[in-house]
Structure formats: structure tokens, C-alpha cells
Amino acid sequence: MVERFARYLLSRAIQVGITVFLGIIASFILFRLLPGDPTVSILDPRVPPEAREELIRRFGLDKPLYEQFLLYVANLFRGDLGYSFVYTGTPVINVVFGERLFNTLALMSSGMIASAALGTILGLIMGFRAGLDDKLFTSLLYLIASAPVFWVGLLIQFSLGYSLGLIPIAGTTSYYYGEVPLLIYFADYLHHMIGPLIVLILFFTPLYYIYVRNVISGIKSEDFIITLRAIGLSDLRILANISRYALIATITLLANESALLVVGAVFTETIFGWNGIGRLLYDSIFRADYPVLQAIFIATILVVALANLVADIIYYFLDPRIRLEGLRRR
Amino acid sequence: MALLSIILLSITWRLSSPWSPRDIAGDPFKPPSYVHLLGTDDLGRDVMTMVSEGVFVTLFIGVVSSLIISFIGLLIGVSSVTLRGLIDAALMRLVDFLLSIPTLVIALILVAILKPSIINVILVLAVVGWPASARLVRAYTLSLIEAPYVEVSRALGAGLWHIVVRHIIPNLTPILLASVIVGCRAAILLESGLSFLGLGDPGLQSLGTILFYARRSAALASGAYWLIIFPGMLIMLIILSLTLIMLAIDKSMKIKE
Predict the structure, then answer these.
(1) Residue A86 pLDDT > 70
(2) Does any CB of chain B come closer than 8 Å to the CB of residue A210?
(3) pLDDT band, very low/low/confident/very high, at A328 (cuts 50, 70, 90)
């Protein structure tokens, strides 16, 4: 049993390794594709020539491409992602992995977990009932799912922010850290989070709802459900039985959406001025801050790989078929 | 139906409107009235006229890129199955990898590297869109290649080329149609998003671009809700129509099986 799990885990870990490796290659190629001389596009044109020579040596830009790649990987493992063009002198790693990452993770994880829970429960109930209320509710959620996120963001900002004044219009906090008691700071932080959070929940809930509802309404007519009903199990007990399928569906979707944990809120963060990775990505594009873009890309790939690994482990314990036959997802 | 009426309405208004989308037609920030049915923007341009042109730009970019997406998908999907072995495995690894990264991130980084023009935007949409289409085509081709009539054809000595052209591709038509619709939906959403972030073709006004300018001209702070609501609602209706078409195709294919 343990041995089987170990073998399973190893095969998944190799998969993850391949993904990360591909990602590193992609990030290397993508940012070498930048038009013109790499020393121009990777180095800020304003730096003096001596500093440029130094950087060329350090990143081995005068060496052949494969040596550059090895050096790039070596620097990566040391956590050296270069320096930001805009936040001069700050290592990229400090720009990306710090307060901004925390803000994004706080916003996205609450948004995604709330939506997953809400969407799964509603989808489970509606898929099981399959009546008129299911039809109406599902249509409504298809409508919401068709609305572009940024538009929903603007509408929420306009209605709750400008018109009603219930939420702050933009920003992450109104105070500096340490300026006010911690509790007030925290409350203020949450108050700023309401707007973006509503947008995210409106965006993610339909995804989970539609997926789970379709899985459940597909299962409803399977033989084993009919058997359970014939045995005389109450609806509630059957629902409890089915919920395992809903859970597997939800986890599949969560794993697929996991990459969004880091960069999922570009629109929402930009509209509400939330100081996170999504807004950093947006700003960096306009400022041509390539080292930061590269770091965000790599961070995304790491999160994707990690989340898929975690999902695979959860599948193993949730789905007995995998325990017996090994995984054949997708 | 809804899609058709949006298109018809846009054509009618675009042709009969007394203004061009760039004309200054009245006072700035006028709410909807009988003269300006959807109001005017910060420069006094007629929103209805701008929107009716925006619908076309948005749909055009969406349709062209979804056709490219489906073509690449067909090429990669079919060749992946027929070539088998290592090439198939390598292509599908690549597809898996591309699908696992959020399309918006790739698109944003690519647009940042390229210059924003309509050709580059379509190119970027195609680059991020093809993997989904390739996977769909591949899955379907796999089931087709095992079909009895293909085996008969092979037994009769038909070459690979003959099988692909005569048997596989004609039978892929419904899946290609689905792929075009799905691709179009994704492309329109992404294009609107890029334009909303100010990364669209500066010479063309898609629905997303109108929203970008609306946000930049502080339409919200001045209470000019009409600049926000109508373009966004049109994107929503277009996407909803495409979703419904998608569901209908899905249903009819299930019934056939």
C-alpha cells in the first residue's frame, strides 16, 4: 500500500518536474525573443556602459546560448532573478515575493475558496433537484458567466463605491502599517477587500456551479443511484453519497484554476487598485520591466506545478479507482 | 438570434447614424436622450455610433482569430494522431503545458513584447487559443481512426493521405464548428480584456477599447454610467449567444451518438 503510493507519487513528481523544466525553457526563450540586442532589452538603456559590461559578464551574455541557459538556471536556483528596471536597485525577487504576493494570495484564496464552496453546494442541490428552479438558476448563472470580469468590476465599483459609498473606491489600505492599532488596520484591509472579493465570487462561482451541476445531473440517472433509491434510501442520504463526485469535480477545477492564484486578478486588481501581483503584471507591461515579468511568469509555473501535485495526492485518497489503476486524468 | 439582432441593429445604426464614431456630436457627458440614444462620452462623441462600430471590430477580431485557431488545431490535432509515437507525445505535453498557464498571462506578456496592432492582437489570440482546439480535434480523431469504415478503407489499401482527406476531415466538421465557436468566445473575451487594459490596436475601437477610454476619462467619478453599461452589456450578450450556440451544438452531437 505504502509502496504503491510512493510509486504513484514519484510518477506525478516526474510530471511536475517536466512542467517546471518546460516553463523555465519557455521563460528563457520568451525573454530572449525580445526585439533587438538582449543587452538592450534586458538591461535598462539608462545604465552606464561600465555597469552594462559588468552585467553582461554576470549573465554571460557574451557566451554561447546553451551556456547562457545553464547560467540562467543556476541563477534561478540561487533565487537571483536580476534587478527591476523600475524599482531600481531592488532585486526582482523582493518586488514580486513580498507584500504583493501576500495581498494577491489573501484576495484570491478567499475568493476562490468561497466560490468553490458556494458553487459546489448550489450545483449539488440544483443538479439533484433538476426542476424549474434549477433551470432558472442555471440560466441566471450562465448569464453571469458571460459577463466580462472587468465590466463586473466597473459596475461594482460604480454602484457600491461611487453611488452608495459603501466600499472604498480603490486601494489596499488607507493607513500605513503601524500607523493605527493593528485591529483597525486589519478591519480597514478587509473593508478594501470587499469590492474585489465580490467581483471574484461573481466570476468564479458560475464556473464551479455549472461544472458540478452537470456532473451531478449526469450521475443522477446511473444505475447505482436507482439501486440506492430502490433500497429505500432517503434523498438526503443519496445526496450525501453523490457529494463525493461533486468534491472530485470541484478539486479538478480548483487544480485547473490554481494558476490564477497568483495572477488571476489582473483586471480586478487593476480596477480596484489592489496592490498585488496582477496589478504589478499590468504596470510592468507598460513600464517594460522585463525582469519582473519574467519572475511573475516563473512564479505562475511553480504554483501550477505545485497545485497539480497537491490535487493528484488528494485524488489518490478520494477516488478508489486511482488507487487501483493509477491515474489517467483528462 | 440575439447575436443576429445585435449585428443587424449595429449595421442599421452605423449606416443611418448622422455621425461618424470619431465625430464630436454634442456636449460631453450627456446622459441618454432622444438625440443621443446612449448618451455621449467625455469628448461629446455619440456612444451609440461608437458602440455599433465596436461590435464589428470585436466580432471581426473574434471570428478571424477563431478561424486561425481552428485551422492550427485541425493541423496539429490530426497530424498528432496520424504521426503517433514520440511526436504525438511531445505535442500533447506541449499542449498540456500551455493549457495549464493562464492565457491572460501569456497574452499580456506577448503583447508587451510585440507592438499592439490588429495583426499582432489576432496573432496573440491564435497563439494562446490553439492548444484547446488541438486537444479537442485530437480526441475526436482518435475515435474516428478506429471506426470500421476507416479500417475497411485501410484494408483496401488506402494510403494515410487518402484516409485523412476523405474520411477523417469530413467527419471532423461538427467538431470544427464547435471549435470555431469556443475559440471565438475565448478570443472575444480576451480581446476585450486586452483592449480594456489599453493594449488593443490604437487605431480601432472595439467594445473593450470604449470601456478603456471610459475608465480613463473618469466616467465613473462623473456618474456617466451609460459609458460603462452599454458596451459591457453588448460584450455579455455576444458571449452569451456564443455560449448558447455552443450548448446547442453539444446537445445535437450527443443525440447523434
Answers:
(1) no
(2) no
(3) very low
Cα–Cα distance between B52 and B20 in angstroms, integer?
Answer: 11
C-alpha cell at A91: 532585486
pLDDT, block means (10 residues), chain B with 257 residues: 69 65 65 66 71 85 92 89 82 82 83 80 89 88 81 78 80 87 90 87 82 77 76 88 87 71
What confidence score (pLDDT) does residue B36 get?
Answer: 63
Whether B75 has its CB under 8 Å from any CB of chain A: the answer is: no
Name the closest residue on chain B to residue A169, using Cα atoms.
B221
Q: Which residues pair with A91 in a beta bridge?
A: A83
Nine-digit cell at B168?
477523417
Q: Let me know: does B158 contact B119? Beta carbons within 8 Å.
A: no
C-alpha cell at A164: 452608495
pLDDT in tens, A88-132: 667 777 777 778 888 888 888 899 899 999 998 888 888 887 778
- Give, in degrees to the nearest 5, the angle at Cα B190 between B184 and B196: 135
How many CB pairs lie under 8 A apart between chains A and B?
A: 110
pLDDT more than 90, % of chain A: 3
The Cα A81–Cα A252 span in angstroms is 32
Distance between CA atoms of residues A123 and A208, nearest Å:
7
**Residues in B touching A301 (Cβ below 8 Å):** 101
pLDDT by residue (tens digit) across A247-294? 888 887 887 777 778 777 888 888 888 888 888 888 888 777 777 888
Which tens digits make up the pLDDT trace of A224-247? 777 877 887 777 788 887 888 788
**Residue recorded with cell 461573481:** A202
> Can you give the pTM of this predicted structure?
0.82
**Which residues have CB under 8 Å from A169's CB, separation 6+?**
A157, A161, A162
First-last CA distance in chain A: 25
CB atoms within 10 A of CB A143: 15
Number of helices followed by number of strands (H, E) in chain B:
11, 0
Task: For B5-23, write each residue's pLDDT tens digit.
Answer: 777 666 666 666 666 666 6
| pLDDT (mean) for A50-74 | 68
State whether B112 and A288 contact (CB < 8 Å).
Answer: yes
Contact B51, B38 (CB under 8 A): yes
Domain segments of chain B as ranges: 23-256
CATH 1.10.3720.10 holds for B23-256:
yes
User: What Cα–Cα distance (Å) separates residue B74 from each residue in A21, A98, B97, B190?
Assistant: 28, 43, 19, 22
Instruction: Report the SS3 class of residue B102.
Output: coil
Backbone angles phi, psi at A34, to 5 degrees: -50, 135
* Contact at CB, B102 and A300, closer than 8 angstroms: yes
- Tell me how far apart the alpha carbons of residues A53 and A57 are, in angstroms, rounded to a whole number: 6
Q: Which residue has the cell 488507487?
A: A323
Q: What are the distances in angstroms from CA B34 to CA A29, B8, B40, B246?
A: 56, 21, 12, 37
Instruction: Region of B102 please: left (phi>0), alpha (psi -120 to 50) or beta.
Output: beta
Dump strand ranges (E) for chain B: none
| Burial of residue A15 (number of CB atoms within 10 Å: 0-12, 13-18, 19+) | middle
Give which of A313, A315, A299 is closest to A105, Cα–Cα: A299
Q: Collapsing DSSP states into helix, strand and coil, what is residue A91?
A: strand
